[in-house]
From TrEMBL:
Highest taxon above the source species: Eukaryota
Protein name from the UniProt record: Rad60/SUMO-like domain-containing protein
Database matches in InterPro entries: Rad60/SUMO-like_dom, Ubiquitin-like_domsf
Polar residues: bias regions: 12-25
Organism field: Russula ochroleuca
Compositional bias segments (type: Basic residues): 147-156
Domain Rad60/SUMO-like: 368-443
Acidic residues composition bias: residue spans: 77-87, 347-362
Amino acid sequence: MPPRPRPRPANRQASEQNAASSSMTRAVPLAKTDREMELDKGDEFFLRNRNRTAKDWKKLDKLAKGESGYFQVNQSSDEDSDVEELSDASSGTPRKRRKARQRDDNDLPRWTRNVDISLLASDDESDAEVIDMASQEADDSPSKAARGGKRPRSRSKSLTPPPEVPMQQILNVRNVIRSAFAELPRPDSPSNEYVEDSTMDSIVLDEDLASIAREARARVHHGGDLEKKRGGPENVTIKVHWLPHPLNPGSSNDVWSFVTKRHDTFHALFDEIADTAGILSRSLVLTHNGSRVFASATPHSLKIWAEAQMDASDLVTFQYLREHREERPPPIANAPSQRSSPSGSAEDGESESDAQSMADDDDDDVFKLVVRSAVTKDVILKVRPTTSCGAIVKAFLKRAGIADQYSESRSLRGPQLMVDGEHMKADTPISEADLEDGDQVEVDGLQYH
């Protein structure tokens, strides 16, 4: 092999010029761009350790490269690659690494090597035998455990019904029982009738026992009058007359009949009347003989025997009637007094004759009127169509027993007959009111005494 030729020496002038140019470039720095200046300003924000030299920085770089190479994993599948060479940038010497332990594919987790854990397979037949043996040992029966076989299959109960007992056998058993236990005669039912005992005549009782015996005989023979003790019959009929508002001419006067118990309150009666009239029960007002009746009352507390009549209206109508009932009619200027007019006796005689004519039942055109007031009870009068309203008022006062309290000598103002909220004049015949048999009228102007 021929010897290698030596390199040609470089030109000194060129090297000197290059050195001069390089020194000039080093001496005269190039102008930095805006980007470089901006980066330099950003680098100034970071702190640098000025005490470290370039040698120290090389050492640190070498250590950093060595640590990064140490943690690299060789993933080659070659079995002979036990030793790997790590090239160091500074030294270039190979370094030994620990021999990595080869993992076997058949290695199992540590918990699988635990002896205390027993694995049972659901499809293994021997496991069922072991479980069965455990249950047999719990029964403490050595005979079953000695068998060591499988548990015998349990048989279900037979669904076949038992044989039917013949009817002849049932009849024979019944006859035997009837003959053994003969039927005793049924005792007579006790009666409520009191039977006189002949032996009671010879027995002398104490005063208390004798009084009890007398009461028992009287109750049996004569019977106790329970209705008198209770205040009347158990069922009471209440006839309710509905009073419409006087300013409502389209409404009608209806009469309803209800049946209630004697000692029951009127709560149910109030509800029934309110439903029939189509109003609320709290706005219903019920009156009896001029007095207001509340729902807490009973027929017995009102001393009603078997039948009673009551008036019903709503609260507005009741207040209207009460206000107009308390109002006094204007004084009659032309009304003749008993002292100044000599014809007063003639008028009194005429009123008496009218009252007598009202009681005449033989006339065909006579009809009944129910006259009411806030002071007295209702009075039923028989009148003719030609009877004047003043005569009806005087007959009502006489029948109520208060005629002496409203004589013309005491006051010029007197009671007036009111039909449907309108006052009737004294000389007006009752036929102008167009009333029928059983209608109700009111007498207004009465005062409480």
